[in-house]
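Re: How this chain folds, sequence and tokenised backbone to follow
Notation: Tokens come from a learned vocabulary of local backbone shapes, not from coordinates.
Start of record: The labelled sequence and token lines come straight after this line.
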Amino acid sequence: MYKIVTKRELNDTVTLMEIEAPHIARKAKAGQFIIFRVDEQGERVPLTIADYDTEKGTVTIIFQIVGASTKLLNTLNAGDSILDFVGPLGVPTHIDPEAKRVCVIGGGVGNAIAYPQAKALHNAGIQVDMIAGFRSKDIVILEDEMRAVTDNLYMMTDDGTYGEKGLVTDKLKQLIEAGNHYDLVVAIGPVIMMKFVAATTKPHNIKTLVSLNPIMIDGTGMCGGCRVRVGGKMKFACVDGPDFDGHEVDFDELMHRNSFYKEQEATARDHECRLLKGGNQNG
């Protein structure tokens, strides 16, 4: 069992939890992920490691409450425990020692994953610009944390209620056209956002990494559920990623595969809601 040390609500649908997992904390690196299971009946859910503390022996996860498992996880509080917490999994983000300046881009809850990437780059002595995009001011998360590990933080909102109005790609294009030279762009967020970030950087020949989180079951490459086409070859996000060259990812196929189980996910959410409310448990 893995104890929840702290729980913090970042906004109405996003929660931060610090989990006691010393073995994972000692080995974790930016870009890796864990797989959790709340109880014996629960599904295996992958979440990127948002932070870790080797001295305290804790790993921080940040999750959006969107499905049955994340809803169930969110009912727990500090002092409670979850059954399984496996990791670190995946290949850590490679930090090029020759890189001088990097732009990290996060979209929505993807900023929870972009933050540890920015932190690792900053700690390596690299200049970090970060573009953090949200729909509106009320769902902004981790601004103080991101600002502490960046040289320039650009806050963007779709509706203009905070920071600058516009998409993250608008700001990226503006920065590139203003003469900012980036050795690398890291994009993490909705698949469609990462697709257009890669399309923005490709004409300028800027190396671009994207962090993919497709449907995943075992996290060891055995099930094949997380396969993605990269450079015309089939890769597994769990063992070959989650970071991939954004200019080689088949985003259209990825979006199609990610939509396979929408009906089942909706059914599971509805079932879980009835269980949590104490209603009919047979449907």
